[in-house]
Fold this sequence. Notes:
It is a single chain. This protein is an all-alpha fold. The protein contains 38 helices and 7 strands. The strands form 2 sheets. Strands 4-3-5-7-6 form a 5-stranded mixed β-sheet, with helices on both faces. A two-stranded parallel ribbon has the order 1-2. Residues about 1-20, about 500-505, about 555-565 and about 640-650 have low confidence and may be disordered.
Amino acid sequence: MAENQTGEAGTLLTTQGRSTLSRWSAVVGWSAMLIFAFHACTHMVAAGDTWVAMACGRHFVNHGVDTVEPFSANSHDAGPTEAEVETWPGWARWITEKVGLETVRKWHPTGWINQNWLTHVIFYRMTTMLGSPEEPYFNALVVWKFAVYFLTVFAVYFTARLMGVDPAPAAAASGLAMFIGRSLFDIRPAGFSNLLVAVFILILALTSYRNALYIWLIVPVVVFWSNVHGGYIYAFIVLVPFVGWHLIVRLPRRWLVAVYSILTWVVLYGLTHQFLGRLAELTNEYFPQRHAVAPSAGNDWMIVFLLLAAGGSIAAVFHRRISDAAVTALHAVATGLVFLLLLGRYFPAPPNTMNERVLKIFADHVAGGRWTCIGMFVLAVALGAAVLAMGQKAVRVLDRRVLLHAVGAGAVTFVGMVLFNPFHLTNLTHTFVISVSEHAERWRDVHEWHRALDWANPVGTAIPFLVMYVIAWLALFVWAFLCVRAAMAERSAKKKRGAEDEASVWPAIDIGLLLVAALTVYMAIRSRRFIPVAAFAACPIVALLVQRIVGFLLTTAKGRGAAQMSEADLRKAVDRTVLLGMAAALAVLGLWRVVFWPWLFLPVPGHPTQIQPRFWLLAFGTLLAFAAFPAAAVFCRAGRGGQGAGEKGSGSRPFVESAWPVAAMAISAAVVGFGLWVGLRFKEIYLDYWPADPRLTSIFMRMTASDAKPFYACQFIRENKLSGNMFNYWTEGGFVAWGQDPDPQTGRTPLQLFMDGRAQAAYDTRAFDLWTEILSGGPAARRAAYEGRSPTTAEYREIGAWVTEQLDRFDVWVVLMPANQFDKSFVYGLEHEPSWRVAFINNKQKLFVNITTEPGRQLFDGMFTGQTTYPDEFTANFTVGRNLLVSREDGQREKGLEMVIRAFHLDPSPGPILDLLLIAAQFSELRSRVDEICIEYATHFEANKSSYAGRDGYNLRLEAARLATVRLRQLAEAQGNREASETYTRQMQQYLAERDSIANRKRW
């Protein structure tokens, strides 16, 4: 095999003889990259982690980085303490005794382990330097997002170019990578990991294709990475197969076959063991009486079989009378047998007592495991066949010096990661605790950790990823097939001509980078959050394989008596053919989008979520798009009429020569059109009016949906100096921490959270389980959910009493819930519990206080005496008026009604009018006044609708008008006025359609 003795790659494809195409590729390719990178940064993703970052960054800047958690009453305590040490294994206690507890606390601290601490500091510093601590400039974080992903697209592009991909397909691969990951790009520390994965793979490519010394760049990169995000562990994970592959591929052919086969068996068995273990966990979770146990290494007959197979493999290698071909055949048969034996374990019989929901969970797990096993086997076979077929001509092998540099750089990186991180060894061990500990699976209930092809997942989209996934499999399979076919044809031709080996015109492929991409894609299949990094790793490889496939097809005339192309002409032909393929693929995907897109979202009951019909529709469209490239190669070959490309005039027929300029213009038009569309969409969504809120309208607020965060509720908390323990919605905990005034000496926030988005970094799984149980509403809520109905009034009272009992155990006297929880059992339960009253309400938040506690009683009483202060007149009138509406005292309801009406006049929006309709309209003495307000507002809005349209917060006014119209329709129906009722129905439907249309247009 071709050994890289110097660590330098062969020269990249030259531009000689193709200057026009090169200039076009440079201009259009770079334009497309920048447009796709810009487009990727415009996606709206809710910013739960962003506000955690701001709160933590402020704390670290003001109080330093330590493990003392300042925001929550249920978080880890700093340590280790002497009591904790007593629970450690004997060897750990011995070390602690020898070095001292203080030394252990320094090098292996426990408590709040914030692996993203440096990102948090960067976020806080950026916003306050461009703004101020009192008024941060949050758009600075938007600039950070754009900078991160522009750097990422450059890294992906140059990785592809280093591998030998031409400029046009390299630019297309980079743009595709950004498009695939777009729905998961948000403003949070994971953005650094996305960038640094691309940079790390670029460093591996530089090491392989340029110079061994580039590998030392991983030292500063990973040390920085280990302080900005816990994803740094990826670097160590992929460095192992990268170095391991190059160690294996240096072996003699017989040993290469044996070691490769044995590793394949081990990986297949490991996947199966993992599958069976999870299956046993699911069985025990839903059917504890079955006591399912996964096979262990000690009692699994497959282990014995694998050991015997490995022994036979080594024996065959040593037995010199067995030819190399026979050794290869024996291992191929053994690998197939191992695969079939293990595949049989992926067809378990489900328990007969499963209901539909549990059956779906089991079916998803079985389908995912089965396809993973099949995919691993196909990958191993395809790679093995290609490597053995290509041999020395096309497989890059790093020499010992490069490998030693890689191992040395990895060791230094590990030491640097430990030394230059405030958590030292815990920075490493914490990663394993949250990834592979017994409770790690519990945290994977979070949507972003679900499998990529879980179509019901509301976080991000996997459709572009599935397109890439199918293309990757097709490219790998076709490339491997053509490698074997070309090798066989070349051997046959050599036997006839007696020719010597000819040097390949293509740079050798580093299979180690292909394995890195495959591993990253597997990570994405298991957890959706890794889709972006999978795209960054895989897209350059896919582009390279497609380019090689085209090259193979264009040179199949070699050895058939046809005139051979020169190297320059071959590269020119490949460039143009890939260009034709790209244009044809765009046309196919466009047609498929028009015809099949509506069918893509039709779920079919009974199918596992990962194998819904949409999978096959996407696979079909992707197959057609991929087929455009070999079809373009066949087209170009046919157009040459069997003549050599190196001859004057190139031997091409006119229709071939005219095809590639047409393709170039089509692609240029597509890039320009897409760029214009992106620009116009950005203006419409981020610069024009914002319908969701009249005040919080910055680009950052829109991009992160932060206008829904409790800005005014936190102002209420600050102004009234609330302290103690609260129960909050998980994803809003970080904002509540940020929105308080921490103690200047300790950084501790006065009102302590129950839970927040830091998850494993700050909480034990017991806290998460407890939060989930309380929010669910307890036994009464579960009973109603199981029966498929809403709780009754009596059950709501039971829920409220149960929730109160749970919260009292933790001294919780404040509950803050967002609008998306207003109609859930938990909130309704509190509203039916006399000890809980609403102390703050607006259109987006409700804050309850327990009035049986002293601070709760004082805050509630203060609403009526003026001692409780509010951020604005709207919330003061709305909150106090709502409480008076539900009062049983004489005259209080009328007063409360007028206060709610005043709030509605101050801010015409859904919250106050809903209280008018749902609370005030229940009382006969208030009903006429409610009807009067609805008529007044509906008439006024319709008369002034055109002047309101296009203003910030317009959808709030529109929804309020729709709700008023609902009431007017009810009145018309009660009066028997059918004509008016139909008029109001049409008007209501028009408002609803307009509201939804605006919301959809303003969502990206």
